[in-house]
Design goal:
The protein is an all-alpha fold. It is built from 26 helices and no strands.
Length: 588
C-alpha cells in the first residue's frame, strides 16, 4: 500500500477555555470602543493606535502571569524601539528645518542687500530735501531780520549745521528765540552743577588708592594688637594659676613642699594647649560685616524689583544664587506659586525650581528635602519627567520616602512611564534606606530574583517587610522564593505563615495554589510541611483548613485537618453547646 495514500489525522485547534474567550472578547471590545471614540473626535492617528494596543498588551501581560517576565521584556524592547523612532523623526524634522534655513540663506541675503541699497538711496534723497529746506528757511529768516542786524556780522564760533536738530528741542522750539534763550540758561545751570559735583562729590583715583593703603595698614595693626593681647592673656592665665596654687597650698596641711606643688602645676599647665578664644570686641565695627549686611539687603530689594516687574526667570535665577541661601526657601517658593500666568508650560514655579536645582549642581550643595519634594511635584504636574530623571541622576537632591512615593504614584497614573518611574523610585528608596519599598519596586518591574537577592542580603529586612511584599505584590515566583531556601539560607516565611498572610488579602488564590503544589508532591510532603512549621500554630492550620473548605478545596481541607489532629496532644473539640459543657465544672 502506498504510504502517501494513508489517511492523515486531522489537526484540531487548541481548546480555549471560557475565561480566555471572555478575556479576548473584552480586549476586542476595548479596542473597538477606543478606536470609534477617537475617530468620532477626529484624533485617531498612529500614535493613538499605538497607545491603545500598548494598553491591550499590558492587560495581556497581567492576564498571562506565567509569561509575564518574557512579555514584559518584549514590550520594553518595543517601547524603546518606538521611542528611538520618535526621536529619529524629531531629529529628522529638526535637520529638515535647518536645511530649509540654509537653502533660503542666499535668497534672504539677496533681498537684504537689495533692501539696503533702496534705503541708502532713500536716505540720500531725504538728506538732499533737508538741505534744501534748511537753505530756504535761512533765506526767509534773513529777509525778516531788521536791517541794522543784517549789517552786523558776528563771526561764528563753531560750524553749525542748520539741518541738524538741537537735542531736546523740537523744530518749532529751535526756531523760537525765547525757547533758545531758556534752553541756553538751562545748559549753563547744568554746567555749574557738574562743576560743583566735581569739587564735592568725586575724588581722584589716587585718593582711593591712598585710602586702601590706610585700610590695609589699620588691619595689619589690628592683627598685631590681637596677637599681643593673646600673649598677655596667656601670661595672665599662667600667673593666675600660680597665684591660686600658692594660695591653696598656704591653706592646706602642707604635706608637700611648695616647690613640688608648683612644679607639678606648671608641668600640667604646659600640656594644655594655648587656645584662648578672644572676645570679638570689634565685630560691631567691622566694615566687612557692615558691607555684607548692606549687600544682602540690596540683593533682596533687587529680587523684589524683578519679581514685581514680571521678569520671573531673572528673579528665579537671582533667588537661586542668593548669598547664604536667604531666598532658597519655601517662602520664596510660595511667592512663585501664587503667580498666575497663561503659559502653563513655563510656569514661574517651574522656573524657580529649575534655577534652584541647577545652581545646586554648579555650587555643589544639596537641596533640602522640602524643596526637593515640592520641585518634583511641580515637574510631574507639568509632565516634565525628563527633568526629574536629570535631577535625580545629578545626586544633588535630598532623597526621602515621600519623594519615592510621589514618583511611583505618577507611574501608576501614566502607564507609559511606569517602568521608568519604578526604576527612579527604586533608586530613591535605596538611598533613603526604605528597604521594603525598594524591594517592592523591583518586584513590580518583574525583577523578582533581584528583589529576593536584595532582601536576603539586607540585614535590616524583617518579617513585617516580607509580609508587606506579599500583600502588595503577590506573584507565584515571589511566593515560591520566600517559602524555599535561598542560596543555603533558610526560607524567609514558612508555608503556613505565607498562606495565612495571603488569606487576609485579595490574593488568597495564590495561597491555595501553594498548598495544592505541595500536596501534589505527595501526602508526606504536606505532612512534613505542617509538622516542620514552627511558626504557624495548629490553630492557624485549622483556620487555613476552614478557608479551604469554604472555597471548595474539600480534599485539601480534610487532609490538613487529619494531619493536625493526628499530632500528639491535639484533640478536635466540637463547637456545639452540649460538648462545650463537658469542661464547665472546671471553671465553676
Amino acid at each position: 500500500m502506498n504510504p502517501s495514500r494513508l489517511p492523515r489525522t486531522p489537526v484540531l485547534p487548541p481548546i480555549i477555555s471560557s475565561s480566555d474567550k471572555t478575556f479576548l472578547v473584552s480586549l476586542q471590545s476595548y479596542i473597538d470602543y477606543e478606536t470609534k471614540k477617537l475617530e468620532s473626535s477626529g484624533q485617531l492617528d498612529a500614535e493613538q493606535q499605538c497607545t491603545i494596543y500598548g494598553n491591550v498588551f499590558d492587560k495581556v501581560i497581567d492576564y498571562c502571569s506565567d509569561y509575564k517576565t518574557i512579555l514584559t521584556a518584549i514590550k520594553r524592547e518595543y517601547d524603546e524601539f518606538i521611542a528611538r523612532i520618535k526621536q529619529g523623526q524629531r531629529e529628522a524634522a529638526h535637520r529638515q528645518r535647518n536645511l530649509k534655513v540654509l537653502a533660503c540663506e542666499p535668497t534672504t541675503l539677496m533681498y537684504y542687500m537689495k533692501r539696503a541699497s533702496e534705503l541708502t538711496d532713500r536716505i540720500e534723497i531725504i538728506k538732499n530735501d533737508s538741505q534744501r529746506i534748511a537753505n530756504e528757511l535761512q533765506k526767509i529768516q534773513e529777509k525778516r531780520r531788521p536791517k541794522t542786524l543784517q549789517l552786523e556780522k558776528v563771526p561764528p564760533k563753531a560750524k553749525i549745521k542748520p539741518s541738524t536738530l538741537i537735542p531736546g528741542m523740537t523744530v518749532e522750539e529751535s526756531l523760537s528765540m525765547d525757547s533758545l534763550i531758556k534752553y541756553q540758561q538751562h545748559l549753563e545751570a547744568r554746567v555749574r552743577e557738574l562743576r560743583d559735583d566735581i569739587k564735592y562729590k568725586y575724588v581722584p583715583m589716587e585718593k582711593k588708592h591712598e585710602l586702601d593703603e590706610k585700610l590695609k595698614l589699620s588691619l595689619y595693626e589690628r592683627e598685631e594688637a590681637e596677637a599681643i593681647n593673646k600673649k598677655m592673656l596667656i601670661s595672665y592665665r599662667r600667673r593666675r594659676v600660680i597665684a591660686d596654687t600658692i594660695s591653696s597650698w598656704a591653706k592646706s596641711n602642707k604635706s608637700t613642699s611648695l616647690n613640688q606643688t608648683l612644679t607639678h602645676v606648671i608641668a600640667k599647665e604646659n600640656e594644655i594647649k594655648d587656645d584662648i578664644v578672644l572676645p570679638n570686641v570689634f565685630d560691631d565695627f567691622d566694615p566687612r560685616k557692615i558691607t555684607e549686611a548692606e549687600s544682602l539687603l540690596e540683593y533682596v530689594e533687587r529680587f523684589n524689583e524683578l519679581f514685581v516687574s514680571g521678569d520671573y526667570k531673572a528673579a528665579a535665577i537671582f533667588a537661586a544664587n542668593s548669598p547664604r541661601g536667604i531666598l532658597r526657601n519655601l517662602d520664596t517658593m510660595e511667592r512663585f506659586r501664587a503667580v498666575r500666568t497663561n503659559k502653563e508650560l513655563y510656569s514661574p514655579l517651574m522656573l524657580f525650581f529649575e534655577a534652584v536645582i541647577g545652581s545646586s549642581v554648579i555650587k555643589k550643595y544639596t537641596v533640602n528635602a522640602a524643596l526637593t519634594l515640592e520641585g518634583i511635584k511641580c515637574a510631574l504636574s507639568c509632565n516634565r519627567l525628563d527633568d526629574v530623571i536629570h535631577w535625580v541622576n545629578q545626586q544633588r537632591l535630598t532623597f526621602s520616602e515621600a519623594l519615592g512615593d510621589v514618583i511611583s504614584d505618577y507611574g501608576e497614573k501614566k502607564p507609559y512611564h511606569r517602568v521608568t518611574c519604578l526604576a527612579l523610585a527604586q533608586l530613591i528608596y535605596r538611598k533613603c534606606s526604605s528597604f521594603r519599598k525598594a524591594a517592592l519596586s523591583m518586584c513590580l518591574q518583574g525583577q523578582v530574583q533581584g528583589a529576593l537577592n536584595y532582601t536576603y542580603e539586607c540585614k535590616q529586612f524583617l518579617l513585617d517587610d516580607y509580609l508587606f511584599l506579599l500583600k502588595h505584590c503577590a506573584t507565584p515566583e515571589l511566593i515560591h522564593g520566600l517559602t524555599k531556601e535561598w542560596n543555603g539560607k533558610p526560607a524567609a516565611l514558612s508555608v503556613g505563615q505565607a498562606v495565612l498572610s495571603l488569606l487576609c488579602t485579595d490574593h488568597k488564590d495564590y495561597g491555595f495554589q501553594l498548598l495544592e503544589s505541595v500536596h501534589r508532591c505527595g501526602d508526606s510532603a504536606l505532612e512534613q510541611v505542617i509538622l516542620n512549621d514552627v511558626v504557624c500554630t495548629p490553630e492557624g492550620w485549622v483556620e487555613i483548613a476552614d478557608e479551604c473548605l469554604s472555597n471548595n478545596y474539600r480534599t485539601l481541607s480534610e487532609k490538613i485537618i487529619s494531619i493536625v489532629t493526628s499530632q500528639d496532644g491535639v484533640v478536635e473539640i466540637s463547637s456545639k453547646d452540649e460538648d462545650a459543657k463537658i469542661m464547665e465544672h472546671i471553671f465553676m
